[in-house]
Amino acid sequence: MPRDLAYPKERVNTIHRESERARYDLHTIHSIINSTPVLHVSFNVVDPGQKPFPAILPMIGQMGSFSHPSAGLEEILDCYLHGYVSSRVMKIARENSDEGLPVTIAATKCDGLVLSLTPFSHSYNYRSAVLFGYATLVDDKEEKLWAMRLITESVLKGQWEHSRTPPESGELSSTTILRIRIASGSGKIRDGEPHDDKKDLDRPDLTRKVWTGVIPVWETLGEPVASRSNRVEGVPDHIRSFSDKSNEISRAYAQKAARDVQ
Questions:
Q1: I need a surface site. Which of 22, 209, 227, 244 has the fewest CB within 10 A?
Q2: What is the 3-class SS of the chain, one letter each residue?
Q3: pLDDT tens sequence across 66-114
Q4: How far apart are CA 244 and CA 222, in angstroms?
């Protein structure tokens, strides 16, 4: 499959402001989704007894393909979301089982505080992605187990094999997986140093007084803290390895983004 697949630019996903920062390629967008611990999922609630506000929920999710498990992030994928069986989004998705419940999924990573000569030009270095798609419940047991493992491994790689699996019947029945068929999407990335106006840069009184630059920001996994019921001595290798690798990747990206020149 080609390595440069992109979501087509349509009215729903085209970025107009700072369009040079827009990304439409699948790999970039899916990477942002998969590296964001909490996704925000919005949907409309059509209920005459409710006030007309869209609902938005923080959820855990991951891009993947059950029919092609080895598919890379640059390929066409679904988004799998994990939730409780009686949650509102699951109930509404069940009621829209034919076409699927229209949802919007948002993910954001903050990579730096961008400090400029004036408050107007302050910014963040960031990565963001938005997906538009249709949510349906996963009823097939094999696909449900596959998706649960996919999502568990996204939280901490190797944890599925190092915990009590497979889930018991009661755990499976109380857990619902949503499969989102993606219709469209886009991403947006800002990196690099501040962008100050020439009129401000030409003022020595200002440039000698105000510090400008980027403070890198990255997520850090701290030192594991054992539970009171834990009977395992030391921190298992898969936990230590995942933590160290995740911290290094996050740190390296934020520091590189601070130095990049746009």
A1: 227
A2: CCCCCECCCCCCCCCCCCHHHEECEHHHHHHHHHCCCCEEEEECCCCCCCCCCCEEEEEEEEEECCCCCCCCCCCCCEEEEEEECCCHHHHHHHHCCCCCEEEEEEEEEEEEEEECCCHHHCEEEEEEEEEEEEEEECCCHHHHHHHHHHHHHHHCCCCCCCCCCCCCHHHHHHEEEEEEEEEEEEEEEECCCCCCCHHHHCCHHHHCCCCCEEEECCCCCCCCCCCCCCCCCCCCHHHHHHHHHHHHHHHHHHHHHHHCCC
A3: 999 999 999 999 999 998 877 888 888 888 877 899 999 999 999 999 9
A4: 9
Considering only CA atoms, which of 190, 197, 191, 207 is closest in space to residue 259?
A: 191
| Tokens found for residue 39 | 């996704």
Which structure tokens are listed for 167? 């889930």
